[in-house]
Specification:
Blueprint lengths: L11 H49 L2 H8 L8 E2 L2 E5 L2 E5 L5 E2 L4 E10 L11 E10 L5 H4 E13 L2 E7 L9 E4 L2 E4 L4 E3 L8 E3 L20 E4 L4 E5 L5 E3 L3
Parallel strand pairs: 11-12
Antiparallel strand pairs: 1-5, 2-3, 4-5, 5-6, 6-7, 7-8, 9-10, 13-14, 14-15
């Protein structure tokens, strides 16, 4: 039997077995680290996809932006190569096909339209479509890399093509102002004043002034903010039904 002893009494076979198991441990550790890193990259990509979809929804809530991108496109299997949004009076293109989003470098593969039918929703004279967005995440797992997300859009269509569209609903008629018994309501999920940046329900470019008010704090207006004409301070209606100063 072949056997080589070193000065410390270990045979060559012992050394080979030790090296083998050491290599196996290193392989398993590196594989685990790589798998964990891939999982982290997947989570990052998913978070950035949600941010991307939120940005698209805000932009497409403006019928002007939605129409710039999808007007005259087929309601089913229609395709576009980028999103078009107005920044002031300038029309810009964003999120083109084969570009990436976020640090995770998730690639945009395809935009397409699909007819959406939900007869439980009262949408009057409007129709609905899904804007389908196909993406590819930059991760090792090929089965999880390609994903599809959709945004539901309200539309008016003619002969199978989109005439008008918007996320969140289209205003009835030519104006977003709707007269109610209690006053005027704005029929729009987002409103911009002196700005085209739509980040929240109300977006104001410049300053906002609240006139003095001493409205009672009640169950109906918990969370409301007012400027007290008596105490000269901004206040919020709290759950204990009292006005408390904002930013002490």
């Amino acid at each position: 039997m072949f056997q080589v002893n070193n000065q410390k009494g270990f045979s060559g076979l012992n050394l080979m077995v030790g090296v083998f198991f050491l290599g196996l441990v290193v392989f398993l550790v590196m594989h685990t680290i790589k798998k964990q890193a891939d999982s982290l990259n997947d989570l990052t990509a998913e978070a950035e996809i949600e941010v991307f979809l939120g940005d698209l929804k805000r932009q497409l809530s403006s019928a002007k932006n939605c129409n710039a991108t999808l007007s005259k496109i087929q309601t089913n299997n229609g395709q576009v190569t980028s999103m078009k949004f107005y920044k002031g009076d300038e029309l810009i293109e964003q999120f083109a096909l084969h570009t990436t989003i976020g640090a995770s470098e998730t690639k945009i593969l395809k935009y397409s339209t699909s007819i959406y039918n939900n007869f439980d929703e009262d949408i009057a004279e409007l129709g609905m479509i899904n804007l389908i967005i196909e993406l590819q995440k930059d991760i090792e797992s090929q089965s999880a890399a390609k994903v599809s997300r959709s945004i539901k859009l309200y539309i008016r269509e003619r002969e199978g093509r989109i005439e008008e569209c918007a996320f969140g609903g289209l205003p009835k008629g030519e104006t977003i102002q709707v007269q109610e018994t209690f006053g005027t309501r704005l029929s729009s999920p987002f409103v911009g004043v002196n700005t085209s940046e739509m980040k929240t329900s109300l977006n104001i470019g410049g300053s906002l002034q609240l006139t003095p008010s001493d409205t009672p704090c009640s169950q109906e207006n918990i969370g409301a903010i007012q400027f007290s004409g008596v105490r000269k301070q901004f206040e919020q209606c709290k759950r204990d039904l009292t006005w408390k100063r904002v930013h002490r």
